[in-house]
What we know:
By secondary structure, the chain is mainly alpha-helical. The protein is built from six helices and five strands.
Amino acid sequence: MPARTALSVRPLRLAVASLRLLLALTVLLGVLYPASVLLVGRLVPDRADGSPVRVDGQVVGSALLGQAVPEGPEGDAFLHPRPSAAGDGYDPLASGASNLGPSSPELVALVEERRDVVAEREGVDPALVPADAVTASGSGLDPHVSPAYAELQVPRLARERGLTEDEVRAVVADATTGAWLGVVGEPAVSVLAVNLALEERAPVR
């Protein structure tokens, strides 16, 4: 009889142990872990909130997301970003590439059209237009351009802003980051940082 009692108690003990384990994991993974992630996110707000860039307390863009420049003649006073295939242009809800292969006639025609537009805008030979000036990034949201594409735009920016080319190059240099740890990636120029610095030095009137 005592043996039967022990056997009947064992499932109850297992049930209680399982319930305790469930409660412990619920507290650990459902409360403590999310709370710690939220705390870390709040301690590094730029990363947690999308790295917003503020001017006079107002959000003017994100350090992680590209954005289009004004259309028309006014846009000539701004550093132009890479083309975007994300929705209607730099739409974070439609991030992605065009999915057109390098041998696609449609992509080849689009690249040639973009090259002609950039060459005409910058007053250079089409052969001098860098690749990132005519191709979108994989996400379509790249906030950077290559130093070569930024340099191509220096004369136009200097002319439109009433600055010297050396002054514009200094702005570009300040907004240029090198390869991570010196070996990963390529140098890149933050389009938003350049445009904000140009607006501070010589606002568009």
